[in-house]
Design brief:
alpha/beta; 11 strands; four-stranded antiparallel β-sheet; binds pyridoxal-5'-phosphate; seven-stranded mixed β-sheet; single chain; globular
Length: about 475
């Protein structure tokens, strides 16, 4: 055992030591990766430490430097030291997080950590929760609870009778939502066609009048899904206006807060998420802005009875929870990883103050990247970030919109090819843009300078041609 672990430790040390020098994105082609990794199923085995060495050699260049401070693609999040180390222990201890009996310590850590998350995000302390693989499954868990509750109110037991013959459910949500909502609805048998899309304003926020009209005009049981925040410009729906409208209509409100829910942990950003605590369920990702390794999301649900009714499953070999939490009563999985342990570690390492400072730092860095790159020739910030996400478009004068779409993509990929920073492209209101996402505790002013420099270098090279 020791040799393999020592090799892994040495490789991880080297990885972390080189984050600042490494290119921000992967550098090898799919062809090279495939050639290196493809092999027939091995007939015979080899030493564990050789396996580890060989693995690290083969993936070299095929890893994005997402743990480093210059990776601004998608919304990925970094990894805090205690969270990485705790994650190693999760694998070493190999506890099954299904029930209290399968790991008493793990059950207790989930109990405590779930409570901490609710406190950190200032959500109802009596709410139930589940540690899921990510926000996608936090949505699925939350919407399963919602499905139970709204159909129960119609006299329908969805756990016993399924959806065949059930009252038709409608989902009222934003045209500007994350596609994981659609997938959760598919998994739950509700289907995409149940979605009623409400129009949004120029920042992608639901228009209250359209929302109100949908709630009044659509018949039957309804669930509303709101954004905290949108992936592109981190805009928040107007919770203080929308949620009371939904409550009046007896509609369950679910919030997609994959990263934006962390605004609740910052006094400077709290105004963006005022009234969000009036909802019925919330999804958030610890593997994004809390900087724990993949994979960890959290579902938080006001009505614990609905949550448990949607998830719990008695089985002959399970003693009901006596001393502590049986996680499988709250999650979609049966056997599962102790994924709350790195969250426990991260919250212990940072404390409330450390989380707040990380959130605020990321927001400042995002503002600086977007406004500084946006001020370069041929560049334009499409919105001024209030949180951690922003968009920049690159445009040549006298070029058509389609040409500038192409130019924007070209510039984005050229910046990535410098290795100085990594961004991902997006489409916003029909236009291509380069998206900036800052969600890593490691990002420094120096990283921001390097990102801006990479963009400046590419733009002056493009302008010279
Ligand atoms: C990332 C993200 C999701 C999906 O989360 P996973 O953890 O990848 O399942 C959903 N909604 C928003 C707004 C996101 O940013």
């Amino acid at each position: 055992m020791a040799d393999a672990l020592e090799r892994a430790y040495a490789i991880a040390r080297e990885w972390f030591d080189q984050l600042d020098e490494m290119p921000a994105g992967a550098t090898v082609t799919a062809e090279i990766m495939r050639a290196r990794l493809t092999a027939p199923l091995p007939e015979t085995g080899m030493n564990a430490d050789t396996v580890i060495d060989e693995l690290a050699t083969k993936v070299n260049g095929g890893l994005n430097n997402a743990a480093g401070g210059r990776f601004f693609g998608w919304v990925t999040g970094g990894t805090l030291p205690s969270a990485v180390a705790a994650d190693w222990l999760v694998s070493s201890w190999d506890q099954n997080g299904a029930t209290f009996a399968t790991s008493p310590a793990l059950a207790m850590i989930e109990e405590v950590t779930g409570q901490w998350i609710k406190e950190l995000l200032d959500l109802p302390r009596q709410a139930s929760f589940a540690f899921t693989t990510g926000c996608q499954m936090a949505h699925t868990t939350s919407l399963a609870a919602a499905r139970h509750a709204v159909l129960k109110a119609e006299g329908w037991n969805v756990e016993d009778d399924g959806l065949f013959g059930a009252p038709i459910l409608r989902i009222v949500t934003s045209e500007n939502r994350h596609a994981s909502i659609d997938r959760a609805l598919r998994y739950l048998g509700i289907g995409r066609n149940a979605i009623y899309e409400v129009a949004t304003d120029d920042l992608g926020r639901i228009q209250p009048a359209g929302f109100k009209a949908a709630l009044t005009e659509l018949e039957g049981p309804k669930i509303a899904v709101l954004n905290a925040a949108d992936l592109n410009v981190a805009s928040f729906d107007d919770f203080a206006t929308l949620i009371p409208l939904a409550n009046e209509a007896g509609t369950w409100v679910h919030i997609d807060g994959a990263f934006g829910l962390f605004a609740r942990a910052s006094r400077a950003k709290h105004h963006l998420v005022e009234g969000l605590d009036l909802a019925d369920s919330w999804s958030v990702d610890a593997h994004k802005w809390l900087n724990v390794p993949f994979d960890c999301g959290v579902a938080i649900i006001r009505d614990g009875t609905a949550h448990r009714a949607a998830m719990a499953q008695p089985a002959s070999y399970i003693e009901p929870e006596l001393d502590g939490r049986d996680q499988m009563d709250w999650t979609m999985e049966w056997s599962r990883r102790g994924r709350a342990i790195p969250v426990y570690a991260a919250l212990r390492e940072l404390g409330r103050a450390g989380v707040e400072s990380m959130i605020d730092r990321c927001c400042t860095h995002c503002f600086n990247i977007v406004t500084r790159i946006g001020a370069l020739p041929c560049a334009r910030a499409l919105s001024i970030p209030e949180l951690n996400q922003g968009l920049i478009r690159f445009e040549r004068s006298n070029a058509s919109d389609a040409e500038n779409d192409q130019f924007t993509d070209d510039v984005t990929y050229a910046i990535n090819a410098t290795g100085g920073a990594f961004f991902t492209p997006a489409t916003w209101r029909g236009m291509r843009a380069m998206r900036v996402s800052v969600v890593n505790w490691r990002t420094t002013d120096k990283d921001v300078d390097r990102a801006v420099c990479s963009a400046a270098k590419i733009l002056s090279a493009k302008l010279a041609t």
